[in-house]
Design goal:
The structure holds 2 protein chains of 2 kinds. Chain A is α+β, with helices and mostly antiparallel strands. Chain A has helices at about 1-30, 40-55, 90-95, 120-125, 150-155, 180-185; strands at about 70-75, 105-110, 115-120, 130-135, 140-150, 165-170, 175-180, 190-195, 200, 210, 225-230. In chain B, a hairpin with an 8-residue loop joins strand 3 and strand 4. The chains are: A alpha+beta, B mainly alpha.
């Protein structure tokens, strides 16, 4: 009897060491944005690692009351159908003309069942509503209610592969952003189609935009066109803007 | 030999001054934090230039009233917005509007440099606090004695400072009463306050520690307090440098750099 216990304990320790080794191994192979020898990007990478090490991953951002909803500036691209702007996109103009009835969001890359969703199909999926604060890197904040589909649901339903590490968002205005799987599977990270109880306005990213609540506003990509899951970090070059902005 | 005393000359060649010198850890953390502070103050202004408006509470943007507007960039331009549309049909409903002008917004590098310098400040500040506690530096030299804290002491020292009647530089402690009060305020109040209000502006950190939003009344109040703490620290810096110059610039700088 006693002997059996000893073996169990030894087994437990061994399993523990193996698991720890596994965790350390994944830690070693984790891919980060290239620093190009730029000390600022090294600092950003250090902040990212420090936050991922020190902070709980799934803690929720504060949710507010309905009466806290505030005025909300629309900045950056405010309409990719505007032919006078460099962010003009002809296919977006046609989708918008048709009230996004034949628009589809494609989910591709490292998923076992690539799929595309119409606005109607997205709205039929289990929805989440949250009143959260948008924190713009410029320094301003605004509170709005968002309705949408948790990104985790889309990633699971399309069968995200075990080697996947990043989720990349491509927008109609040419904008691209990516997040790691910790933020991608965060319960408040979602694909929003509703704002303040109405359809998402064009100014704010119609038909759908991302809500990445644990990071600064520019990660919440508007005018979402494609979601691409990848194993590797997709490098868009050194734009001067930090990739991880949980801040 | 146990009975033989040290030659009397030895004591004076080791240290001719009766006052303690700045130990190496004080000197190095002083200058590291000084450099980090310069970078933080400079990039802080660059970051603020993107939105030079301050608010109170959780929310603040160009479509809501500001507590204070700083004329440090063109970005607070009024009337540079399209006609606003209301989110709800009620009379005082919140609105949305787009800009009609390009703003100054080249501050990505400023934010990265701000956080890099903040890491330097926080890490060296942490070791400084630990050393300050365990060497007794805070208790012996920085914190005012309970016997010292009297209104008479305060007014007398203040009067002496205003008249510039200062004791000659010793190149280190003992510090005057007002000097101790000011250093304590900077080390134990202003610097921790500016670090905590800075952290309160981070969505990831306030998700983990929501009490930060509570104690500072929201993100925008934390931002406003962060700004005024930096102004207070810059005022301290100005007075500190004036006092260093008045009490003997060369001697003081040498004492803080080389320890003699």
């Amino acid at each position: 009897m006693k002997k059996k216990h000893l073996i169990t304990r030894r087994k437990a320790i061994l399993t523990g060491i193996t698991t720890l080794g596994g965790i350390m191994l994944t830690g070693c192979t984790k891919k980060l944005p290239p620093t190009y020898g730029n000390i600022l990007r090294m600092g950003d990478a250090f902040t990212y690692e420090a936050q991922r090490t020190l902070l709980p991953e799934q803690s929720l951002v504060k949710e507010y009351r309905y009466s806290d909803i505030s005025s909300f500036p629309a900045i950056g691209t405010t309409n990719p159908a505007d032919a006078s702007k460099p962010t003009f996109n002809e296919s977006y103009r046609l989708f918008q003309k048709n009230d996004f009835r034949n628009w589809r969001l494609s989910v591709e890359g490292r998923v076992s069942r690539p799929a595309s969703f119409s606005l109607d199909e997205l709205q039929k999926l289990p929805a989440r509503k949250q009143i959260t604060r948008h924190t713009c890197e410029e320094g301003w904040t605004a509170i709005a209610e968002w309705t949408g589909v948790p990104l985790s649901l889309i990633l699971q339903s399309t069968g995200i592969l075990s080697t996947a590490r990043f989720v990349n968002f491509y927008a109609f205005d040419g904008y691209m952003e990516s997040i790691d799987l910790i933020d991608a599977f965060h319960p408040q990270t979602m694909i929003a189609y509703g704002m303040n109880g109405r359809q998402l306005p064009v100014q704010h990213g119609a038909p759908v935009r991302m809500r990445v609540e644990k990071q600064v506003g520019y990660k919440s990509v508007k005018y979402l066109q494609r979601i691409v899951v990848s194993d590797e970090f997709v490098d868009m070059g050194d734009s001067g803007w930090a990739w991880y902005v949980g801040i | 030999m146990l009975s033989s005393p040290l030659p009397p000359s030895l004591g004076s060649t080791v240290d001719s001054s009766p006052f303690p010198r700045h130990p190496a850890w004080v000197r190095s953390s002083h200058w590291i934090i000084t450099i980090a502070f310069f970078f933080l103050a400079f990039t802080g202004v660059v970051i603020l230039m993107a939105h030079p408006r301050l608010y109170w509470g959780e929310v603040g943007n160009d479509l809501t009233p500001a507590l204070l507007e700083l004329p440090i960039s063109r970005n607070y331009k009024h009337g540079g917005w399209e006609k606003s549309t209301a989110f709800f049909s009620s009379g005082k409903a919140p609105v949305s509007a787009s800009r009609t002008y390009d703003i100054f917004n080249k501050n990505g590098w400023g934010r990265s440099l701000h956080f890099l310098s903040a890491w330097v400040l926080v890490i060296s500040g942490f070791f400084y606090l630990i050393a300050g506690i365990f060497t007794g530096h805070f208790r012996k030299n920085v914190l005012p004695d309970s016997k010292e804290i009297t209104p008479q002491n305060f007014w007398r020292d203040l009067g002496n400072h205003i008249r510039f009647q200062l004791p000659p530089a010793t190149g280190g402690p003992p510090y005057g009463f007002l000097q101790k009060c000011t250093y304590s305020l900077v080390i134990f109040f202003l610097l921790p306050l500016i670090v905590l209000t800075g952290l309160t502006m981070s969505p990831a950190i306030t998700a983990a520690y929501p009490f930060l939003l509570k104690i500072f009344f929201g993100l925008q109040s934390a931002r406003t307090i962060h700004f005024f703490s930096s102004v207070a620290l810059e005022l301290f810096l100005v007075v500190h440098v004036i006092m260093v110059i008045r009490s003997g610039f060369k001697k003081q700088i040498s004492a803080m750099t080389f320890g003699k």
